[in-house]
Amino acid sequence: MQHNVIKIESINSTSVWARKNLESLNDFDVVSADMQTMGHGQFERKWFSSSDNGGNIYISIVLKPQNIEHLNELTRFTSIVASDILVEFGLKPDFKFPNDILISGKKICGILAESVFQGSDFKGVVVGVGINLNLDENEVNKIDIPATSIFVETGKNVDKDDFLNRFMTKFKENYNDFLKNGIKELTYIQ
Prior knowledge:
By secondary structure, this protein is α+β, with helices and mostly antiparallel strands. It has 5 helices and 7 strands, in the order E-H-E-E-H-E-E-E-E-H-H-H.
């Protein structure tokens, strides 16, 4: 499945860039960076970024849904999709809702959905996703909370483009059903 990915080598934040450029971006456009200098999560917590060892996922997904009934569940939906891909690598993710995925109590993924309004008009939502694919032990130790990566957990490098393709394919395959029904019965999509 093809995805429109806007690749940027280094940027302050993919989410900030996507929100500023929302009008010119399309539904499902993905802004992807090799490095973020000011990536952030909930409560403006800084997201550690590195492009070493094969890179990691630092993306923002632009969404422009007509039906926003279940929009408050979008972060959780994205967490479920990301967890399904992590399971494919032999990991056992746990959720720390609203926006973290943990492996053995250590953070591997953070998700932040931010709605964009112009006055009272809803223009879209930007879903920022950071996933530690290839951080090594030294890098995860620089993070101010217990953290891990697929590389630390499995000893294997992950192809960033392959991971992103798998993630976005599963996201798109389940998105319309999510918009219609929410995630009432979802734990893992698989």
